[in-house]
Known about the structure:
This protein is an alpha+beta fold. The chain has four helices and two strands; from the N terminus they run βααβαα. α2 (34-42) runs parallel beside α4 (63-76) and α3 crosses α4.
Amino acid sequence: xxxxxxxxxxxxxxxxxxxxKEIFGFPEYYGENLDALHDCLMERKDVEIEVQHGxxxxxxxxxxxELLMQVLDDVKNx
Length: 78
């Protein structure tokens, strides 16, 4: 399944994880951190992720945004 993410909706850690939880339909117990994101996404089969406006997310989140992109890339490249 293909997911298209809008980087403009991920300008803080809290907003990013709330958005990702909604888009991916994560359960209530989703830990809202990068480890939880990685674990939840790796459980899914055939996930394709595209990030639009990633530069805006990276500008807002800095190093955390880079780590978030790395998690998303790990899932795409598995």
